[in-house]
Amino acid sequence: MKVVICLKQIPDPAITEFDLKNEKMKSELWILNPADFQALEEGLRLKNKYGAEVTVVSVAPERGDEILNKALRYGADRAIRAWKTPLIEADTWMISSILKQVIEEIGFDLVLCGNRSKSTSSEFMGVALSERLKVPVLTGVVGFEVHGEKEGLVHKKLERGKRETYSFQFPAVLTVDEGINEPRYVALFSRAYNEGTRKKVESKELGLDDIDLSPAIELFRISQPKPRTKVGTKISGLSVGSLMKVLRGETGSKKELFSGPATKGAQKIAAKLKEWYL
Amino acid sequence: MVIGVGNGVDKREFMAVIDELAELLEGVIGGSRVAVFRGLIPVERQIGSTGKFINADVYMPIGISGSNRHTSGIRNVKHVIPINIHKEAPIFKFAELGVVNDLYEVVPCLIDTIKKESDVSGDSR
Fold it and tell me: What is chain A's pLDDT, residue by residue, as a tens digit (278 residues)?
């Protein structure tokens, strides 16, 4: 059984800020997308159980070697990094085209992806891949078992803990939801770790003509968050006096903030004073 | 009617004007801790958590930003009309009508306006 796992390197969401002016992520630390990590763990379990051959693929520039090396240390057999030099602003559809070329070259029974990435969370890569590879797709998988040679069962989430189960024939694309498993811990300088460090990441530079370069969608605008407005009054923490005020409806008075010339302000105050005293 | 003076009143001569205003409105003068330190008001007139808690109908803080220590003393006031030059001053949270302008301009104008109106209506207030 051949299992291909697609990995994505994302800027660490804990420290990343979005630069609104340049419409780009300001990133310093790059990590492996957690959902992809769990897809990797699912693939490695297949390797331990059925002797599957696990290949990890990532479309990334050279910094992507970091996560692929990590996947190798966790137990993957092969790691392939595909990239094309002028590819900077690529959308999911273009990247799926690159992934398709790589995956078809390797050959596959199963393609595992994370359900969504923490950076863009479009939840689209698995679907796009299945379209490119012309195989069925199952999204949001929370449980997975293999029956026989070429058949599998997949659990998907419904509301309130209900599950639906699908059976399918290989080959297929599965996108793995977070919480499907608990990723393993590989200790430093353990046997698996040392074996992984000996393997090398294969990097592939794809030719210009191999993929269609036109992005299907374009980023149009990023807007600032709207300021939140307070509605209603909290009465649980109030003293008796102010609570009575609220119940009598006295706090709902119309507030006015006047910032104009001094003479007009003075006239306003005088009018108010007159109103209250007469 | 209580008039409060605070950190914004940094000219001692201006207290005469505020005295006049208090007389016109038949009010008394209180103030924040800073005003006490400046010697603008006696310590018995201090409003706030370390001073007096007031129950006035109208309170007019002049040049008071409205720290928690001060505003805890004016919780039971019905109407608050602050005059402050800073738009973000926390005293405006309590305000029914807030005037954002220089107090050295607003207070003399206010005295003029009240005097004119009392001339017309014959009411001293």
Answer: 899 999 999 888 777 676 767 666 666 788 899 999 999 999 999 999 998 899 999 988 888 898 999 999 998 999 999 887 666 666 788 888 888 888 988 889 999 999 888 877 888 889 999 998 999 999 889 988 888 888 889 999 888 888 899 999 988 999 998 888 898 888 888 888 888 889 888 888 775 555 566 667 777 877 777 777 777 767 777 788 777 777 776 655 567 788 888 888 888 888 888 887 76
Q: Domain tally for chain B? A: 1
Report yes or no: B82 and B64 within 8 Å, Cβ to Cβ. Answer: yes
Structural contact between residues A158 and A122, judged by C-beta atoms closer than 8 angstroms? no
Subunit contact B97:A258, Cβ cutoff 8 A: yes
- Residue of B58, B81, B87 with shortest CB distance to A259: B87
CATH assignment of the domain containing B94: 3.40.50.1220
Secondary-structure class of domain A2-210 per CATH: alpha beta
Evaluate whether ipTM surpasses 0.85: no
Q: Does B94 touch chain A (CB under 8 A)?
A: no
| Residue contacts between A and B (CB atoms, under 8 Å) | 80
Model-level pTM greater than 0.90?
A: no
